[in-house]
User: What shape does this take?
Amino acid sequence: MEEKNITVGTDAESAVRRVLEARYGDKLKQIKFRRSWLTASASQQLWDVKGTLKLKRGLLPTATRNFRYQIDAITGVIIGHEEVTPK
Assistant: This one.
């Protein structure tokens, strides 16, 4: 379920948290948000949310990934995302 009219950064972070929990389920160990900000252009307002997540990997140690999500501030639809495994 998508949010609508996201007006504060904590709402954008909550939307991203729900997406990550649905995607990874019980493999998700930790989510840390580093930065959330509103970017406005002439035609659209977007929330950018950056952070780090840790995933359980069976017998191996946890895997760490950095993520960035872009969310439309009016409709709450996730426009794009990327996840990067640090080297």
